[in-house]
Amino acid sequence: MPIYFCDPYASWQKEGIENTKGRLRRELPLKTDIKKISEEDYQETILNHNLTPRKSLNWLTPLEAFTQNIHLVALQT
Length: 77
Hints:
Number of domains: 1
Number of strands: 0
Mean pLDDT: 86
Shape: globular
Distance between the termini: 24 Å
Radius of gyration: 15 Å
């Protein structure tokens, strides 16, 4: 599996991560106390994030992409 490292302070080299952080920060601002968020609100935020289509996934949601490829994942017990 190829591994890539971005240069320091080069946010344009990691568009997907920066976009994801920005989306999460809209719902969970930087100074949010995670301990005060209810489990229901937390799960809603995660579900909302995983149900948003991504260009990098050919406009599939992360949940759809994972479901389509679950047979490729080696599960251990």
